[in-house]
Predict the 3D structure of the following.
Amino acid sequence: MKIRMERSELLAGLARVQGVVERRNTVPILSNILLEADADGIHMFATDLEIGIRGTYQGEVLQPGGITVSARKLFEICRELADGPVELAEQDQWVSITSGRSHFRVASLPSADFPPAPEPEGEVRVPVARDVFATMIRKTFFAVGDIDTRYVLNGVLMTVQAGPEGGEVIYRMVATNGHRLAMIERPIQVDGALNVSAIVPRKALVEMRKLLDEDGGDISLGFTDKRVIFKKERLTLVSQLVEGTFPSYDRVIPKTLSTSITLPKVEAAAAFKRVSLLCQEKTWAVRFSLSGNTLTLAANHPDMGEATEEIPVVYEGPDFTTGFNARYFIDVLQNVDGDSVRVETDDPLSPCVIRDSGDPGYLTLVMPMRL
């Protein structure tokens, strides 16, 4: 194989796969990227056997074929090259890289040994706009579990349910780590019956966010029994779904709550950040005290000191004191769109529901802490 590509095009393709490639893998070839050249263009594919990204890029195919080379090392080399054409050629399990006066020779592994890109069948398409999907991921991702032993919490539950007549239905995403929860709903238009329930893993969501952050391009989202398929222009991401049953989150969300507080978003976020500077880092506990139209936040560190701050709020009710993880509140406040949030609860030991004044289809839930 022999190809010639512009550095910018090659670098863009290599950058997209860095999060997928496993640097420390028991299967050496999975640290590589597969490059294939044919009449349709130059294709790059990387996988860790659970998630894979394949893209087609522009370039000159001087000799068709395929090679695999270290994804990390090729990316580092390309990043340091000057702008201009880059030529890659394979010979006897070595890849030569030439750009201007720079020459490199990097070890390769046979392309025939690289795992093939999956070709899912029976895909169910979910018609969701690019900006809507990006917003839904942003507003739920922070609540996803991180290396949780309960594997189903290491992903986001995506559901779509439509009646046999089609029309407007609800696309929902839910994430939780057992201590907090985020749920967002958006109406979508479908033709015919549609029923989807799938847990998309955290790593796949990270890579989807990166692709969504890039400029332009419509997206396509589809599901099979075991995989999620995300497409954008000449890129395809395929990931295995998390197997298992997602917790019954609807049972945790209270239907009616007796206490309601309206907080200004910007002021509350800044106050939580300041007070959290003197939280104990293991718990990030903040005392949350209401009296009249004033919310008092307080934190205490046995070795460092203490901090308090008052925030004017809209509240009518008896004095109220509980505790929350400051980071959980900060994450919520950084992701709401409105100027204020409504905090609802029943008593100091009840779950706290936070609603976004600028998005009626979005809510979060934070469990209290014993102080």
